[in-house]
Fold these 2 entries.
Entry 1:
Amino acid sequence: MSQTIVVKVGTSSLTQPQTGQLALSTIAKLVETLTHLRSSGHGIVLVTSGAVGVGCARLGLKSRPQTMALKQAVAAVGQGRLMRIYDDFFTSLQQPIAQILLSRRDFIQRSCYVNAYGTFRELLQLGVIPIVNENDTVAVEELKFGDNDTLSALVASLIQADWLFLLTDVDRLYSADPRQVPDAQPITLVNSMEHLAELQIQTGESGSQWGTGGMVTKISAARIATNAGVRTVITEGRYPESIEKILQGEPLGTQFEPQPRTENARKRWIAHSLVPVGKLYLDHGAVAAICQAGKSLLAAGITAIEGEFHASEAVQLCDGSGLEIARGLVNYSSTELQKIRGRKSEDIPMILGYGGAETVVHRDNLVLSN
Ligand SMILES: Nc1ncnc2c1ncn2[C@@H]1O[C@H](COP(=O)(O)OP(=O)(O)O)[C@@H](O)[C@H]1O
Ligand SMILES: N[C@@H](CCC(=O)OP(=O)(O)O)C(=O)O
């Protein structure tokens, strides 16, 4: 059966750890594998890191740039070279590719998000392999994915992929970083995020020399993707042919079971693509109404407001201790909410001098956090 497969490859797999030069044989095997899967009828999207790493190698820089401006300049050098290499390899196998550079803003604005979906769908129908990276050169600090693990999970959720493969420089997830803890235990299957919490995985401070997020971002990517019904696998990038073996049922890498898609596409967009710009603190009654009874949030249940925001922006809904219980789109600005918090819905027109929505966050625009 034809499947939609997103493969994310990290800098640590694409470059030689000692020299930072490209790992050409790995890239060649990856291209062969993806082309073979495509010609077998699967829809393939490649999310690739490496712009910064390749740019550094091109410019003779010996470590990852620290300032935002230098990182963006180096990525601009590396991205073109990276695509040239992919195009050379894929063209040798007559496989057309496309470049898609995305920024967090493209995911926040619903119209851009829906447009991006349309573009992916057309490309896949045309038999093209889209090659995705963060648009590093225009990203701003507050609105960066920061790591391509998260980006790949959001792409997998957007296109409702069946599989997300996170290719890295370790063969799977371990109970702790195997570089630091030699007797760390391998994890082969994660049934649910509750199961993951029970495993008490330690992820250490960071990843490899050139990678960005380490295991932390891969686990959080697995959370986003599995919540969207996407089976997620962490496996070793040096052996891209493992992807086909895993699809045939071999138990390689760490597999995260997909969760039933309980939320619709729009709610998944609210939960994962939007960046919350404020916090609403709720009393016990409001927390119970939202978490247990699936109700909308009313002004009466709000005890405090943090941040400045406009109506229609995304906010976190928190219990009294500040723990996030849900996310949603607000019907009122922070200035209006300061005036109406704790008050009954029927008093709102009198307080504000104009009528507004009965709810502060309608249940159709509200997603429980897990
Ligand atoms: N619990 C863990 N299991 C496996 N690897 C871990 C764990 N914690 C941290 N790591 C580290 O994460 C690294 C991979 O992350 P990263 O360098 O960001 O790779 P990539 O460039 O592929 O995104 C591994 O080299 C490993 O040292
Ligand atoms: N957009 C950046 C990717 C940063 C990133 O996530 O790197 P990695 O941890 O190697 O997947 C680049 O192309 O260098």
Entry 2:
Amino acid sequence: MTELNRLNITAAQESMLKEYLSQLCQANGRVRLTGSSDPTVLWQEHVTDCLYLASAVEGTEKIIDVGTGGGLPGVVLAVCFPKSHVTLLDSQKKKAVQLGKIVEALELENVSVISARSEELAAARREEWDCAVARAVCEAPVLAEYLSPLVRQGGCLLAMKGPAWEEEVLPVQGKWSALGLSEPRALPYQLGESARVILRWDKVAAIDKKYPRRPGRAEKIGWWKNA
Ligand SMILES: C[S@@+](CC[C@H](N)C(=O)[O-])C[C@H]1O[C@@H](n2cnc3c(N)ncnc32)[C@H](O)[C@@H]1O
């Protein structure tokens, strides 16, 4: 399999991302937005990681980052692609409030911050985005149920995953069409010592009207059990 490359950024983008990390560390003192508050660790393990995703979404107009927390990967994508519009979504209001302040301080005009669960947003703004991305939110099958109702037919879903990704997708093999999706494709890359992948599903058909289900149903009753 061909390895994914990290997106090359300009000096101006690098300096904006460093400013983002500085804002993130300050905000972390108010609300826990990310595990580490060390800018070097955040750069090496978080921003660098998201730059691999960036090479997979280049050219996409409307992106939504579901479960964005402190803005990862969405803020990195917004800095890399000023012509794209990036929606940052998190169910925790206190995180969204702090993230809104970071976005304002960075003067990022191509970003919206929304506090809601993905199921609520998808009910109101069904299949509106070209691409939905997520990092460290939940296992792939549940995540796909969150993301698919937000994405238009012809768009794609991208999930950043560690080495255990195969265990997550195996039980659902051959069933993804129930969510209007192709079988997932793994785009591998290496982050330091860690073998990682971006899982990509193409949205090949409109999703059934029963999705999104009510908030919380996706974790309780796996969609694939009846598919
Ligand atoms: C572990 S954090 C990951 C944050 C960030 N993506 C990162 O890589 O650092 C997961 C976030 O997903 C949010 N989340 C979980 N399920 C969600 C849903 N259905 N809709 C919106 N946000 C959700 C949580 O509130 C939490 O902030």
